[in-house]
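As a warm-up, study this chain.
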Amino acid sequence: MPHPTAETAGTRTQIAAIRPDLLDPYDTQHPAARAAILGRLLIAIETEPLPGLTRRHHHNGHTHVHFGDTLLTYPTSAATPFTAPPAGLHVTIGGRPTDDPAHLAAALWPGTPLAAELAGSVDNLALARAANPTPAWPTHPQPGQIEQTLIDGHPLHPCCRTRTGMTVADQLAYAPEHHPVITLRRLRVPADRWHGTGEPVLLAHPWQAARLQDQYPWLTDDGTTGPVRPLMSLRTVAPLDGGPHIKTAVDIQMTSAVRTVSPAAVHNGPLLSALLQDLTRDLPIDVLAETTAGAVITDHGPDRRLAHLIRQPTPADAVPLGILADNPRRFGDPYQIVKDLGVAFFTPLAQLLDRGIALEAHGQNSLAIIRDGRITRTLYRDLGGIRVHPARLRTAGYDTPTLHGDLPTDDDTELRTKLAAAALATVARQLITNADTDPDPLWRLLATALKNHPTLLTAPLPVKATTAMRLATDPLHDQWTHLPNPMAAHA
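Now compare it with the structure written out below.
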């Protein structure tokens, strides 16, 4: 069986050189990190249409999956979303045991980059946990601090901590779970090479800036911004003075994609922001406006590698729903949380869907304002993944701005899928799974909040098939799997 070990050996060498105090904790955390990533991979194998998979069957608490003539066997319970896998988790592939997701991927899909990406995800997760043995919640949070309490990253994606191209030193310097404060580089751009709004100055992530200046010497260094903290997404930062957040472009693959800023996003953001703020004026959800955006024009036009977006900041004490859903009892009674989110999140999202907008309201893009133990409002950020139905908007009395890229759609199913996959199949499932109580009454509460939207109650829940997408020829083309809808019994 292929045995990719170079990534972990290289990581240990780097840690020993620059942070020897972390080496023993890293080694201690590595088995649990392997189990965590292996569990996420097994969730994909349990549910997604993966290349080479020909048959699944379950027997005596185990799943048996056939990839052609190769048989994979694992405990079915290990493929349970949003739960910690058992210690010592291992699988049997071709009659041989392994506890390493990279080994498993190399055996199932030889020649693909997924094995190396999973090895990196394991190493970076082990490093994150080593640096945060007892994660602390900020008592008086400053901008960005709450978001830096998320240690494990994406709750379902096996590449949750993949950051291709970053060294250990880069992780420690820039990754949010290592709690850095950094500054961005201001790169002045010739006026005829600037596309977008605002002054012709590119706000570049320091990891990216040196690479850009080597390639484009006509970018003039104009100093640095004030101090900022990286948020959950690493490349988006919050100024310590509470100013607008800045989304930068970095040539780093995180989870499934290299995190650049497309020309379409530069164009669409300010236009969509005005529309969405009108559409949500009567709802308890605020869409944070993307006020300014720009990109440098290179030989191929506005360049996604040299671009930024600026958007309204979140209050320093706003809690991303991915953090709230990971440990809901930290924030109060799960029944009250579901009731409050029914009013302030799920119902307004469905009302927006009726009006013609599907927000990609997953746990990173959606935040709660909590006052006196109650969720009073929610916030939504990041317009790049939403879908817009122009005909529905016209029926609701709104004109659609001219949008670029794949945001406009006349497909009702595509619109509904975008919302349900993020808000229901991710946020709601994670919240209810982690509530540590009987899930059925909580799903009943959510069904009550969505009672005027029967399709959301009864249609199977779409889940993005992230591992299948990563193995596909076009990894950015959405693929879906579907799960039974727990609200259907209460419709």
